[in-house]
Amino acid sequence: MNVHEYISSGILEAYALGELAEQERTAVEKNLALYPELRQELLRIEKTQEKLLRMAALQPRSAVKDQLFIKISQQKPEEKEVQLDTVKVTSFWRFAAAASITLALISSYLAYNYYSKWKDTQHALTDLTEQNQRIAQDYNQVNERLGKIEKSVEVINNPAFKRVIMKGTPHAPEASATVYWNEATKEVYLSIQNMKTLALANQYQLWAIIDGKPVDAGVFDGTDESGLLLHMKEIGSGAAMFAITIEPRGGKPAPTLETMQVAGPV
Amino acid sequence: MLQDVFLKVWDRFELYDSSKGRLFTWLLNVARNQAIDKTRSKEISNERKTRGIENLVNKVERQEYIEQGVDSIGIKEILHGLPEEQQFIVTHLYLKGYTQSELAEEFNIPLGTVKTRLRLAMQQLRKTLGVT
After folding, report:
1. ipTM > 0.90?
2. Is the CB of B3 less than 8 angstroms away from the CB of A87?
3. What's the whole-model pTM score?
4. Are A257 and A171 members of one domain?
5. Same domain, yes or no, for A186 and A242?
6. For residue range A26-69, what is the model confidence (pLDDT) as tens digits?
7. Which of A16, A186, A241, B84 is the most exposed place for a label (fewest CB within 10 A)?
């Protein structure tokens, strides 16, 4: 709606004069509620007509007032009572409307409040769940490592395991390794010290020399689980010597003697 | 007549809604409508209606209801400051008790013209009367 066109049509002047029919009046009141500019303009019109008409005002004689109050007191009491009832109903509904609006506002506020609290709680829950999963993972790792340490201690302390010390060859004079071998159960464990890190393409391979022939006893990277015993492949009985060579990843059926790192007799 | 208006105001005061306008405007509308209704019901001729403000004042004063006369000089001066056609509209609407549609019909002025002339007059009066 163009407010200026609306104002200059003179409809507000007609409204202030009480000239409009019910329908038009309602429409104007709706627009007044929507546009503060219209309210301001109407107020000016009302003030102007008030000032103008006050100049033409007549002061009634006091007798008029006395007669008026006599007339009012003569009005039938029942009639006035009915009037009062409508007033009560009106004010009750006004009160009810105000109460409903207040209630609606409070409810909206609370709803929003609880919604944000619920969101916060949800975030906190997600965080805690993740944290819990991490802790569980850590616990599993520690538990696994503890199991390996227990196993290592058990192997080292078990007299059934033969301890075979392998010393560094001229290829790797610093390196050394120890094999724990239980001939009865065929189990082989290995502990390594100062063995260099290999390229990804290579792995260490442990050999047992049985009846003068090298027998594969498994491959390892040499980087993981430092300080722990490595569980190697089982081998047959009668090993006279153990040695470790560097081989392509996955190992080979026969050792490359030129790469031998450590070796030692049983 | 005056008493009827006061009684009406007394009875209907609950219906006044301050959000819809000033109290003066509401009182004006109650009084004006009551006067128009009364005039119509008595079928007072247009002859009497058009006699003008001086006669109206004299008549009321004769009835001895009035303690003070109207400050008719002041209001006349103010209205003289308006162009003639606007002065005519304001006088008929505010002082002679015409409705806009009556005025339009009787003097053969389109209703829209009545409205815009009143609007222009009110804007001029706003300045003259110092309404902000």
Report:
1. no
2. no
3. 0.44
4. yes
5. yes
6. 899 889 888 888 888 998 998 888 888 888 777 777 777 777 78
7. B84
